[in-house]
Each structure stands twice: as structure tokens, then as C-alpha cells.
Amino acid sequence: RFDTIRGSLDVEIIDKNTLKIKDNFIQYTTFSSPKETKFEDADVVFECSGIFLTTKEAKEHIKGNVKKVIL
Fold first, then answer.
1. Contact, 11 vs 20, CB < 8 A?
2. For residue 15, is pLDDT > 90?
3. One-character DSSP codes across 4-53
4. Is the distance from CB of 53 to CB of 35 less than 8 angstroms?
5. The dihedral formed by the CA atoms of 30, 32, 33 and 37, expressed in degrees to the nearest 10
6. Statement: residue 6 has pLDDT above 80
7. Cβ of 42: how many Cβ atoms within 10 Å?
8. Residues 6+ away with beta carbon under 8 Å from 41
9. Is residue 50 over pLDDT 80?
10. How confident is the model at residue 69 (pLDDT cuts 50, 70, 90)?
11. Is 2 helix (H, G, I), strand (E, B) or coil?
């Protein structure tokens, strides 16, 4: 809810996988391995663990509709 650069963010936590920011609902998931994931509805994946940093490892995230992986 707070970013050191941008300040506070008015976000509502709807459930364990959904955030609401203004009128936008954002779905998110957490997995320890990209092999466990299903990205059917995702266009962009944010890899925030810091574990999968090589091109080969990041390619594990490109499934379904995913076009980009942001490390």
C-alpha cells in the first residue's frame, strides 16, 4: 500500500488472489516454481522472487497467453 517513490496507493484486498485499484481488479498468484503455474489469462508475468534470472529459467514463465516476463 505504500511505495517509497510514489507514496501510498489506494488498494483494496478483495481476496487472497485479487486486488482492486480504483475500478480495476487485478488477479495475482504466488508459486514457488513456474512449472506449477497456469498462465492462461496472463499477458505479462512479473518474476519477483529473484531466483529465475537467466533466459532459460525465465522461459519457464512463458506459457498460454504470456508475451513478456518482467524480472
1. yes
2. yes
3. TTTEE--EEEEETTEEEETTEEEE----SSGGG---TT-SEEE--SS---
4. no
5. -30
6. no
7. 19
8. 27, 64, 65
9. yes
10. confident
11. strand
Q: How many Å apart are CA 54 and CA 56, to the nearest integer?
A: 5
Grid coordinates representing 7 are: 507514496
Q: Which cell numbers hold the place of 16?
A: 487472497
Instruction: Tell me the pTM.
Output: 0.56
- Residue 27 pairs in a beta bridge with 18
CA neighbor of 60 nearest in space, from 27, 50, 41, 39: 39
> Three-state DSSP class for 65?
coil
Residue 64 grid coordinates = 498460454
